[in-house]
Amino acid sequence: MTNVLRQLVLFCIIIPVFKALNLNEILIIVSYDAFRNEYFDRGVTNFTNQLRSNSTRSKYMLNIFPTKTFPNHHSIATGVYAEEHGVTGNGFYDFELKQSYNYSYEMFHFRSEIKPIWILNELYNGNSGCMMWPGSDYLYDGIGCTHKRHYNLSENFHERVDEMFEWILDKKNPANLVMFYIEDPDNHAHAFGPESPKITELVAKLDKTTEYIHKKIMFHSLEERINVIHLSDHGMDSMQLKNVIDLTKIVGNSVDFYGSSPVLQIVPKIENELDKIYEKLLNVSNIMKTFKVFLNNELPERWHFSNKYRVGPITVVAELKYGFQDMYESAKWYEKAYNITVNENNNYGVHGYDNAIESMHPVFFAYGHLIKEFNEIEPFNSIDLMYLFCEILGISPPNYLQGNREHIKGILKTSEMSKTSRWIVLTVSIIISTILVSIAMLTINYWRRNRANVPTYLYEHEDTILDDTKLHGSINSTPQSTLATSSTLFNVA
Ligand SMILES: *[C@@H]1O[C@H](CO)[C@@H](O)[C@H](O)[C@H]1NC(C)=O
Ligand SMILES: *[C@@H]1O[C@H](CO)[C@@H](O)[C@H](O)[C@H]1NC(C)=O
Ligand SMILES: *[C@@H]1O[C@H](CO)[C@@H](O)[C@H](O)[C@H]1NC(C)=O
Ligand SMILES: *[C@@H]1O[C@H](CO)[C@@H](O)[C@H](O)[C@H]1NC(C)=O
Ligand SMILES: *[C@@H]1O[C@H](CO)[C@@H](O)[C@H](O)[C@H]1NC(C)=O
Ligand SMILES: *[C@@H]1O[C@H](CO)[C@@H](O)[C@H](O)[C@H]1NC(C)=O
Q1: How far is the CA of 164 from the centre of ligand 6 (A)?
Q2: Distance between Cα 204 and ligand 1 center (Å)
Q3: How does residue 459 score in pLDDT terms, banded at 50, 70 and 90?
Q4: Protein residue with its CA nearest to atom 1 in ligand 1
Q5: Which of 199, 205, 268, 455 is the most exposed place for a label (fewest CB within 10 A)?
Q6: Is the CB of 154 under 6 A from ligand 4?
Q7: Are 203 and 189 contacting, i.e. CB atoms less than 8 angstroms apart?
């Protein structure tokens, strides 16, 4: 009998503790690279459209400048702009390290105090699963994802979903956060253009992937624990080679170019030629109006792109439908990789433009245990998402975040509840369950004492549980023991 009661007390307390700390929640962040909002209108995403209208959704999300893959994925995962996390492009020259970088450890380690969500989750004793998410290959202070899969295009979309669920259902280290990345429709849209039937086909395939994730949640009965956020890093637009601006015709051999169209970092080979080179570019830009040129102190403030180590000294940004001479090189690469023939009128997919442009906006919708259904919210910034991740995972948000917590409040069912009010709820539920259990014990005892035909020696030893000090002792000690036993209780999903 004592054992049954102890279990009951444990049970009554475990549930509120888990609820208060969100220890029971699982978060999946799904990114389909360069999925633009217009793709929902092609008539090939019936499942996703229904799921999306049942979810919390926004017409679009606002992303960061430049609207490129690595900068935006890292802003989603850290909650700060490119100037802070230092991933200022898919490639750049670093004036402090005096070297140029593409995808590398250094790219993702500009400021050591800024940690992506999968690392914060590990630091909070969670297990992160990283499915090809940009930047997740590298350790931060020696810590990495518990489960990880390096970028591997041969692993098809369904295999990736299966692997993700193996991580979540892992008996020893169940993943409570998965960063799930798919390189399409970006990959193919660069070569074929976002308008091509090839992309419509891929979008239909991704609709099936979204459905597969949803079905697996149901199949494993995880609806009461899982939260899924579907998003992209940026949109996509198209351009043709006839719209290439060849900057080498303006500045010749006097500079090095880093990054890729439509945003290039220009570094003069001779430092004191900066003003002359800038003026040349500005003159042409003023006449052609197909690109803009900026010195570091002229970059629009709304871009939050001021980083003297990894930006500039000159930044050129092409207008929509335009790109720079590096597009010729890319075209050759697409020709080989996709067996296509290139001419001046091929449509290529391009992104990276000003983040105020509609076709550059990413998608957002979310559903699951803590997320409101049938709910549309105003477009918000991708850097606001960190507050949402932290809330779902029960992590206290780092103090350096640059987003706004108010913007994501309308997404959560319990967002009215602050951390403190959750603790109040926890305390109250412990008190109430203690009272209920005490009443139950008193009743049982009273009932037994009054069963005249049972010899007293049969239940004499049970009197001790009514001893006040013992009762309080056992309840006070339960929170620790519940946390300790939590993994055995909730591992089995
Ligand atoms: C998707 O929905 C549209 C309109 O609701 C319908 O015409 C079309 O047949 C559906 N497609 C599939 C594959 O179910
Ligand atoms: C969306 O909600 C409707 C109405 O509740 C339901 O019939 C439908 O199955 C839901 N669809 C998805 C994909 O969740
Ligand atoms: C980065 O990539 C570009 C384009 O592919 C290449 O030209 C450059 O050499 C690479 N830089 C480094 C440091 O690997
Ligand atoms: C990439 O994925 C394929 C298909 O799942 C697999 O056969 C291969 O071993 C993987 N490569 C690496 C390096 O993991
Ligand atoms: C830029 O244009 C101005 C006026 O049109 C001209 O005086 C100047 O020489 C030009 N500068 C360069 C570097 O071409
Ligand atoms: C490339 O495409 C051409 C014609 O479209 C075709 O004949 C050829 O077999 C293809 N090559 C490869 C390697 O797929």
Answers
A1: 35
A2: 11
A3: very low
A4: 46
A5: 455
A6: yes
A7: no
Q: Which residue's CA is the nearest one to ligand 1's atom 2?
A: 46
What is the distance between the alpha carbons of residues 493 and 473, in angstroms, rounded to a whole number?
32
Q: Which two tokens stand for residue 444?
A: 């049982």
Which two structure tokens, joined as six digits, stand for 33?
Answer: 């690279």
Q: Which domains does the chain have, with CATH numbers?
A: 1-22+420-476 (no CATH), 24-236+356-416 (3.40.720.10), 241-350 (3.30.1360.180)
The answer to whether residues 271 and 254 touch, using CB atoms and an 8 Å cutoff, is no
**155 touches ligand 4 (CB under 6 Å):** yes
Tokens representing residue 278 in the block: 């800038």
Q: In this structure, what token pair is assigned to residue 362? A: 């990413």
CA-only gyration radius of the chain, Å: 28
Which ligand is closest in space to the CA of residue 257?
3
Q: Is 156 in the pocket of ligand 4 (CB under 6 A)?
A: no
Which one is predicted more confidently, 15 or 52? Answer: 52
Q: What is the pLDDT of residue 480?
A: 36
Report the half-sphere exposure of 37 (CA within 13 A, side-chain side): 16
Pocket test for ligand 3, best of 68, 94, 100 (most atoms within 8 A of CB): 100
Reported as a pLDDT band with limits 50, 70 and 90, residue 448 is confident
* Strand-pair partners of 315: 265, 294
The DSSP result for 279-338, as a single string, is HHHHHHHHHH-SEEEEEGGGS-GGG----TTTS-SEEEEEPTT-EETHHHHHHHHHHHHH
CA of 110 to the centre of ligand 3 (A): 19
Owner of token pair 């570094």: 267
What would the DSSP string read from start to end of 220-273? TT-TTTEEEEEE-S---EEE-GGGEE-THHHHTTSEEEEEETTEEEEEESSGGG
| Single-letter amino acid code for the residue at 47 | F
| pTM, 2 dp | 0.82
Q: Once rounded to an integer, what is the mean pLDDT over residues 329-349? A: 86
Q: What is the DSSP string of 348-362?
A: EEE--S-TTSGGGPB
Q: Quick one: average pLDDT of 145-149?
A: 96
The rounded distance, in Å, linking the Cα atoms of 130 and 147 is: 6
> Which residue has the CA at smallest separation from atom 4 of ligand 1?
43
Q: Is 102 in the pocket of ligand 3 (CB under 6 A)?
A: yes
Interstrand relation of 226-231 and 26-32 (parallel, antiparallel or unpaired): parallel
Q: Where are the alpha helices (DSSP H) in 339-467?
A: 385-393, 419-449
Please tell me the distance from the alpha carbon of residue 413 to that of residue 275, in angstroms, as a whole number: 55
Half-sphere exposure of 328 (CA within 13 A, CB side): 8
* Ligand 2, atom 14: closest residue by C-alpha: 51
pLDDT at 424: 73
DSSP state, residue 207: H
Instruction: Please state whether beta strands 237-239 and 348-350 pair in parallel, antiparallel, or not at all (unpaired).
Output: antiparallel
Atom number in ligand 5 closest to CA 276: 13
